[in-house]
Amino acid sequence: MKKYLAVVLGLFVTVSVSYAQSGAGVATDAGSGAKKGRELLHEMVEALGGKKWLEVKNEYHEGRLALYFQGRFDGTMQHYFDWRKPLGPEREELTKKRDVVEMYIGDSCTEIDYKGAHPQVKKICEEYQRRHRHSLDEAVRVWLKNPATMVVNDGQKLADNQLVDQVTLIGPKNGNITIQLDEDTHLPVEVSYRWRDPVYHDMDKDQIQYSNYHRIDGIATPFTVTYLHNGQMTEQRYLFYAAYNVKLPPGGFSVAETVKQIVKKR
Length: 266
Fold this sequence. Notes:
Blueprint: H1 2-48, H2 51-54, E1 59-69, E2 72-84, E3 90-94, E4 100-105, E5 108-113, E6 116-119, H3 122-133, H4 136-141, E7 150-159, E8 162-170, E9 176-182, E10 188-196, E11 203-216, E12 219-229, E13 232-244, H5 255-265
Antiparallel strand pairs: 1-2, 1-13, 2-3, 3-4, 4-5, 5-6, 7-8, 8-9, 9-10, 10-11, 11-12, 12-13
């Protein structure tokens, strides 16, 4: 019996030492992985425009958007005119007449038309807020500055026949943002995040893909942006024009002023 206990104790010590050694190795790898991940994100910021990109006060986009249902174009194509600040708020005018306006200010989501202002559809508001919390701006300007955020270098991946570097940020509340960077240009080609559906309790995945970059005022700007939900395309945007640090329209982020502007157009 003593001999048996001695053997078991010996095995326990051996396994414990081995586990500790492997644990130390994992910690070291995680540390080096975090450093490499941050280096890759720094290269991404430099590729986007460096100091100019970081100091952007606001941006303006003009283009057309196409909507998809179950991955197929549903026939909806409309003009959009969008003003936003890097961390919000955002104002988007729709239709050629620009007589439908969507305003996103903090937790408030409002749609404005000739009938006045009314709360945005709950699902659309939730999707916007979720996308905003996991945006590239949030990842760089908020998540990376939080010492509780874990940065993981996922290594190189093959995405759409393109070799990319992948970095994942894990927030203090277990939120996640995964960023894929072009291996050569270091520009972001995709931002994705996973979240649990509050109704069905399964894990969903949203992706925002960036392509067709042009440099505007020294800032790399994607002129094609594609949105996917669980692998199916939901929306695609095609930019005609982009500008940075522009003069905002009068009362640009005021719901009351915007209501007056829309009523005047009628």
